[in-house]
C-alpha cells in the first residue's frame, strides 16, 4: 500500500511538472544548445580540441562534450523548473488536504524529490535524442548508444540530483520558498563553477573533487594526464585541419578512482534532503502563504514599462 501511494505521488509529480508551458521551451533550448556546441569541422570548429588538433567525432567524443554542456544547462535551469510545487498546492487549495493526510513527511518529500529528478532525467533524454540525431549528420564513427548512456549518466546525474534536492529543500523550508531560494541556488551554482580552477591540478581521490558536481575538473584532469597536455578545449574550439585526428581515450578516462568520485558527488548532492525533512513546514498557515502566480509577470511588466518609458515618450513627440 505504501509503495502504491509513493508510486501514485511520483506519477502526479512528474505529470504536473511536464505539463508546464516552460517545459517545451526548455526542451527546445536544450536541443538548440546541444546542436550549437557541436561545431561543424568543415567550418573550422570542433567540440573537443586538444592543442591544435580535434578529436574524432565518434560516440565517445560527442557524448563527452554534449553531456558536459547539458549538465551545466540542466544543472542551473533544472532547479527553477523543479521547484514551485508547494506554491502550486497553496494556490490550488490542496495544501490543506495534503497536510491532513496520513502520508508521512518523508514520503511526501521523497515523492517530490523523485518526481523532480525523473522530470530532469526526461529532459536529459531529450538532449540525448538530439545528440543522436546530430551523430547521424556529423558522426565519424559507429553509433554506440550504450557509450552515450554511460557518459550522460556519469557526467549529468550528480548535477541533476543536486538541482532536484535543492529544489525540494527550497520548497520545504518557508524562508527559501520565494526569491531568496532562487538567488541562493544561483550563487551556489556559480560557486561550484568558480571552484573548478582550484581543482585544475587535483589528482587521484582528492576530496575537493567531490564538489566537482558537473565532473568537469575530474574528467579533464584525467584526460590531461593521458594526453600529456593541459591545452584541452570543450565547445567550439578552433583547430588546424591539416593535423591528424585524435581518438578519445575512453578506457583511460573512466578509471576506478574517477567512478568513485562521481559516486561520491552524487551522494553529496543528496545532502539538502536532510534539512528539507527537518525544516518541512507541512503547509502550516502561520509559516507559509500562497503567492499569486501572476505576481512575477506583473513585476516584470512594471520594470519593462519604466525602461521603455523614455522611448515611448520620444516616439509620441515624433508622432
From TrEMBL:
Keyword annotations: Membrane, Transmembrane, Transmembrane helix
The UniProt record lists the keyword Transmembrane: yes
Ranges that cross the membrane: 21-42, 62-82, 109-129, 149-170, 182-199, 259-280
Protein name as annotated: Uncharacterized protein
The organism's taxonomic lineage, starting at the top: Bacteria, Pseudomonadati, Pseudomonadota, Betaproteobacteria, Burkholderiales
Amino acid at each position: 500500500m505504501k509503495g502504491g501511494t509513493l508510486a501514485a505521488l511520483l506519477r502526479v509529480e512528474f505529470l504536473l511538472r511536464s505539463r508546464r508551458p516552460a517545459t517545451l521551451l526548455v526542451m527546445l533550448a536544450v536541443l538548440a544548445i546541444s546542436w550549437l556546441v557541436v561545431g561543424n569541422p568543415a567550418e573550422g570548429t570542433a567540440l573537443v580540441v586538444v592543442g591544435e588538433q580535434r578529436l574524432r567525432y565518434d560516440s565517445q567524443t560527442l557524448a563527452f562534450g554534449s553531456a558536459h554542456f547539458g549538465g551545466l544547462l540542466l544543472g542551473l535551469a533544472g532547479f527553477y523548473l523543479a521547484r514551485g510545487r508547494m506554491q502550486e498546492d497553496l494556490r490550488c487549495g490542496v495544501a490543506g488536504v495534503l497536510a491532513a493526510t496520513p502520508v508521512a513527511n518523508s514520503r511526501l518529500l521523497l515523492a517530490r524529490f523523485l518526481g523532480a529528478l525523473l522530470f530532469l532525467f526526461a529532459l536529459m533524454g531529450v538532449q540525448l535524442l538530439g545528440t543522436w540525431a546530430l551523430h547521424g549528420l556529423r558522426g565519424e564513427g559507429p553509433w554506440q548508444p550504450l557509450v552515450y548512456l554511460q557518459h550522460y549518466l556519469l557526467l549529468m546525474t550528480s548535477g541533476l540530483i543536486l538541482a532536484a534536492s535543492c529544489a525540494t529543500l527550497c520548497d520545504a523550508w518557508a524562508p527559501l520558498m520565494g526569491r531568496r531560494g532562487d538567488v541562493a541556488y544561483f550563487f551556489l551554482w556559480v560557486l561550484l563553477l568558480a571552484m573548478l580552477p582550484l581543482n585544475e591540478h587535483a589528482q587521484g581521490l582528492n576530496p575537493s573533487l567531490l564538489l566537482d558536481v558537473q565532473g568537469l575538473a575530474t574528467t579533464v584532469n584525467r584526460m590531461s594526464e593521458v594526453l600529456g597536455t593541459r591545452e584541452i578545449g570543450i565547445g567550439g574550439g578552433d583547430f588546424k585541419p591539416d593535423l591528424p585526428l585524435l581518438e578519445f581515450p575512453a578506457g583511460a578516462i573512466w578509471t576506478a578512482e574517477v567512478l568513485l568520485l562521481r559516486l561520491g558527488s552524487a551522494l553529496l548532492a543528496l545532502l539538502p534532503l536532510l534539512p528539507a525533512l527537518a525544516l518541512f513546514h507541512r503547509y502550516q498557515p502561520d509559516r507559509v502563504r500562497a503567492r499569486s502566480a501572476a505576481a512575477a509577470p506583473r513585476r516584470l511588466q512594471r520594470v519593462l514599462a519604466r525602461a521603455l518609458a523614455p522611448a515611448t515618450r520620444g516616439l509620441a513627440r515624433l508622432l
